[in-house]
Amino acid sequence: MVNLFKSFLDFIYPPLCPVCGDNVESYGNLCSKCWAKFNWISNPKCFKCGYPFPADLDLGPTPLCPHCASGECELDFIRSACVYDDVSKNIMLPFKHASQLKYQTLMSRAMINCVRDLNLDVDIVMPVPLAYKRLFKRGYNQATLLARPIAKHFNADLDVDSVSREYRNDMGHKTTKQRRENVHGVFKVINKNKIAGKKILLVDDVMTSGATFYELNRVLRKAGASAVYAVSFCRVVHAI
Q: What's the pLDDT at 50?
């Protein structure tokens, strides 16, 4: 009966590519043409932070970028599904700022796919918190929408209330140093009992400098988290 009802809905409302509107096999999927336009991050990449390397390099099974080799990445692992560019930002920005929630499924699926190689054992999936002022203005936390199916995939708890965030101005075009200074002290763990001893996967839509992930990692480690990972849909890639 369920399959019959689904077939009826597919007939009335056929699944369409959320980007171009062409027919696809299931809801939330990209068509092959739109899929090919994204700069998906695959190997070779930094084993720790997922930074993409040129495709023609053979760096062995666990290569490290200069930042991770020098110990600058304090999280256990970071992964991003694709590079932030003109294609991905036309998905991410409307999803984040203009309530274009039709992109949620493709984004979360891509994020789940990009962490499969890590075989993570996750207790808690935590969307990067929004300050209440920004949450009230936007009406939703885009990271929470992405985190729900990811938590379901890992059979992990979705935690949206153990960490609060102080409101500060947007980081805009600040440098990496300015971003770290701006975000320092912005998060506060308000439920340490839920954090202590847990392996936590942080979720956000975009990673720019990593400052937000690093600061969350700092306060979660201080509260007793045993491991902290992070995943984003896209990431800004600079020459290193």
A: 96
